[in-house]
Specification:
315 residues; two-stranded antiparallel sheet; single chain; 4 domains; 2% strand; mainly alpha; 14 helices
């Protein structure tokens, strides 16, 4: 009777397994039923090749599952970092750049001596560019993380951390500044550009960062009535850039910015002079109008100041 019950139980178990579309095999070595579909291959090499076959067949979910299985069962094998690397490749193929970045970084953090390390730094830098520009490798729009979600910064900072004196370190630092500048965070952007100049003074990006520092100061000087000191700081920054890099392709733009900012400074003085004039404080008004004529003769406000002095006369 007991034997019949065992056979019935076995029959119904196998029937259920068949209905679940799973093939189970009894292995005397383990004393268990094993589903080959879920089992790990006998060597890490075979397991890697199995995962790659899914990747090549564009079965990405299955590929990731097999790569994870390799890492779980063969964590110390030379194929483990390769599996981690190909998981990153799979995420890239799925147009998930930031997820790919996180997966790639595990190779460097967990397998620092992997032969893929230099290649991964290169890939991470390219991912940073994709996020910064808002496009993936196929030209499709990807999410650009504005506001509090600074994943662009996270990627570039990681590139710098991975290879602080590598070929992407200076430009990554510079692009952090660009990202913050585009977000309107000019104080923070200025700090990052200064870091580029200080940490990588011989890099070509130090020159560009020096220009961007002055541009950040320009943005910080909001209107003619305020931020006069910031405007002066920007002018000095551009003047220093022109002096240090007279042959730079950015020098003409720096000179244009100097002219524009000087015009802004003279406008500020003109606004103050008009205020005193409306208050009938002609002595103070004359001081500011004369200051415009003497210091900003090359601006559009100099002839206007001269005209106002003639109108005021000896009042």
């Amino acid at each position: 009777m007991k034997f019949r019950r065992f056979l019935l139980t076995l029959f119904f178990s196998l029937t259920c397994l068949t209905q679940a579309h799973a093939v189970w095999i009894w292995t005397p070595q383990t004393g268990k039923f094993i589903n080959p579909k879920w089992a790990v291959k006998s060597t890490p090499k075979e397991q890697l090749e199995y995962g790659l076959a899914f990747l090549e067949g564009k079965k990405y979910k299955e590929a990731i599952a097999e790569f994870k299985k390799l890492i779980k069962f063969y964590p110390r094998s030379k194929e483990a970092p390769e599996a981690q690397y190909y998981m990153g490749k799979t995420q890239e193929t799925l147009s998930k750049p930031y997820e790919a970045f996180k997966v790639y970084q595990v190779v460097i953090d967990k397998y620092p001596f992997s032969e893929r390390a230099a290649e991964i730094v290169d890939i991470e830098y390219q991912i940073g560019n994709q996020l910064l520009e808002g496009r993936n490798k196929k030209g499709k729009i990807v999410e650009v993380f504005i506001g509090g979600d600074d994943r662009v910064i996270d990627v570039f900072r990681t590139v710098i951390k991975n290879a602080p004196y590598g070929k992407y370190s200076a430009i990554s630092q510079y692009k952090i500044g660009l990202y913050l500048k585009e977000k309107g965070l000019y104080d923070e952007a200025r700090d990052e550009f200064e870091k580029t100049v200080n940490d990588y003074p011989t890099s070509e990006w130090a020159k560009a960062a020096q220009f961007q520092i002055a541009m950040a100061d320009t943005k910080r000087s909001a209107n003619p009535q305020h931020e006069q000191k910031t405007t002066q700081l920007a002018i000095e920054g551009f003047k220093e850039f022109v002096k240090s890099h007279p042959e730079s392709e950015l020098t003409p733009e720096a000179k244009n910015q100097i002219s524009r900012l000087r015009n802004k400074e003279s406008e500020n003085s003109f606004v103050i002079a008009q205020f005193y004039e409306r208050q009938k404080n002609y002595k103070s008004a004359r001081i500011y109008y004369n200051d415009i004529i003497n210091k900003y003769a090359d601006t559009v406000w100099a002839p206007k100041a001269l005209m106002r002095l003639k109108i005021i006369g000896d009042r």
